[in-house]
Amino acid sequence: MSEKKTILFIGSKPYVNARLTNLLDSITKNTVRHNMALPDRNNGTYCDKLYLCNHLYLNVIQKELCKKNMLNVYSDEYKKDNILDFVANFDKNKYTKIDLLDGTNNVYRTKVNNFLTLISNNTAPKLTKQIRTGMLSLLLTIIKNAEEIKNGKIKILVFGYSITSEVRLSSYVKDSVCELIHKTHRIHNPAEEVSVLHWLHKNKYIDLSLCMLSDNKNLSISAVEGLQPSKKILNILKEHR
Known about the structure:
Low-confidence stretches: none
Structural class: alpha/beta
């Protein structure tokens, strides 16, 4: 029997009190990161795949990475300290693969919604707004590996994604911007994405247990209505307490 593969999708939800690097590194080296959420920031150290939205791909990969340009482009929406940290410490050679994910391309949303319709007999929630990079990379990976996921050959774990109605905060996006997106659904609709995440967890396409982590030193799980953490993750947490 072939060995099961675990892929860990790492979001940008900030944690202050819970120490998470050793925990996350113990799970797998097959990580997927996104945009300006650098590794080794209490979010594990492994660098496998990195997906960038269209404007970050332009300013980080296609253009020479430059402090002046990054501050000019992103200071209104991103935290200055994080911009400076990214410019000083981003190393594209650490990653095995860096790809562009252009969420403005509506072809992706159509592909995702068609897939959700197919696997759920049209009962899964759908997405009507531009899909955020972390969500889009997760969904496209599921589409590509759906059969192996359902057969148990691939396990998709998710960490640092928002899975409740709370304002989705980010380690590098200004809180005020996150609050505006949450309130107005400008460009993105976080509530829709949360609904899809819940459906995928309940139907065993992904495991959201790590997203239920409380921000405390005990590595405890917070109750999330409608979701149950997996025994696999509960056992891993016990080992790291």
